[in-house]
Amino acid sequence: MSDDLEAAHGPLAEITSGGLYPFSLAMFVISACVSLAAFAYGVLLSILQPQVWQNSIIRVVVVAQLINCIRFIFRVLLTNVKINTESGCRAVMFLSDATSLLPVNLCIHCVVYLHLVVIHKVPPDLRWPRVVALTVASALSVVPPSFALYLPARLAGAASFCAFGRIPTRKQYEFTLYSYAIWTYLPGVIGIASVVAIAAHVVRTRRATQRALQASVAYYGPSQSVPRTGHTGMLHRALLTIIWFPITPILSLWLDALLVTVAYYRRRTYLWLEYVNIVLLCLQSFLLGLALVVNPTMRAARAKQARERRLARGAARAHERILPPPPLAPDSPGV
């Protein structure tokens, strides 16, 4: 790779440097295919079972998969495109940062919304909490990266946004810190705090339910028990769905921001950290896809669709059995 290509800004530099290029290109292609398959799966099941699309978390995860697919396709295309114009470099910086932040913040939006519903008892049918949380997540993903579209390059310590290299100067580091890095840490802390709060709530609820069941068995005998209180089953299934899939994207963004800091203070880059960063980045597609597959709403919709197909096949076979035999041809009259 030529020096000017390696000095380009954004994903172009990180996926074309040294021996990282073949590995990163393969990972991005695989991740784009996984995101596209998960998006198609969610849309198809929503068409077959329209009640699936009424779940706000399902809608957000499906849209996040589409953004992920666009993000990885965008990065793959950049491996074969050389950006020379100022407007092009600004657009690359904005699209790279925005498409990195938006899927992760949408995941955090899901966790925060579930936190509001589960712990603070916000009614799920209220629309304004979802709208507010989604607006904040979108604004934190789009507004800070948009600084690159209109701020003069001298504020970033460069003659042009095309002059950003892999080892930033002080002003370039500060610009990256305030326009990108800091906005990866704040939502991530909120998301992890919500996950921990939900986990603690579910553990407390399950323990209380187990104690009530044990007391019931001890008092009434093993043949009777008090009914379960609360929504522990729903909470446990929701926890299994959301507790893990935001963690890896958050860690990926944190490591991505940390790489900029390491490059600035150490005045060099570390290839093994770049490998770890790309693996975490691409795990986001797999975890979001897995979260979509194991979601209780999606599993119930798949079971309903399979049941409807079995009933339709059974009805068709029963209809074939009760059909009367075809009438015989009339005998020809004798001569």
UniProtKB/TrEMBL annotation:
Regions that span the bilayer: 20-45, 57-78, 98-119, 131-151, 180-203, 238-255, 275-294
Biased composition (Pro residues): 323-335
Record keywords, A-Z: Membrane, Transmembrane, Transmembrane helix
Segments of this protein annotated with the region Disordered: 314-335
Name the UniProt record assigns to this protein: Uncharacterized protein
Organism: Coemansia biformis
Lineage: Eukaryota, Fungi, Fungi incertae sedis, Zoopagomycota, Kickxellomycotina
